[in-house]
Amino acid sequence: MKFADIHNHTLAAVDDGAKSEQMMYRMLDAAYADGTRILCLTPHFHPGFFGDNRNASEDSFQKLQSYAAQHCPHMQLYLGNELRYSPNCDHWLREGLCRTLNGTAFILVDFAADALSLQIRRGLEQLLSMGYVPVLAHAERYSRLSVAAIRDFHRNGIRIQINAGSLTGSFGWRARLRAKRLLSEHLVCTVASDGHNLKERPPLLSESYLVAKKLTDPRYADRIFFHNAKNLLENN
Predict the structure, then answer these.
(1) Whole-model pTM?
(2) Which of 137, 205, 37, 23 is nearest to 11 (CA)?
């Protein structure tokens, strides 16, 4: 099985992900060995937390492309950002400071872990009003966001992303139960690694894919681990 991962922090020294070029290359090797063949690099974007990391991200991405060409045949690499929502994000997006997923209309966005449901809703509505399609990052991990609210987001065109580690218990039992609930209701658009390193949060998908195949229709599992992510990156 091939995988497509649209949320990870593999680029070196641009956020809280890979700390060095060597770690970046090791993370790519691990993802490739695990079956990932499409990888969209999504460093965090919020100037208040991570500074202006746009140029550093592009430099790191070019180095990773060169490495992949030599060591990971058939790996397709793309560039985006994980936007930490702020009311000022309209400026960041319109000025091109924050990237969408591969330049498409889809924007990966996250919120504070304890953000109120109303805050998340208003943020997503702002992005929709600007003409973007939000991909809500790790939707299962927001402590104050109900499944009913996520169900409503899904009906309104928001794409729901969950973390692979949540299905295997890496983020605790609450996140695992919520991830399984979202999966059972077919609310999940894509499962991503949200990989940050090789130990606590590796960029791996195969174990969670096997879990998903047991919990739901295998054809749906294939869509959320590969086809849907591929379509997002192609603006479909």
Answers:
(1) 0.97
(2) 23
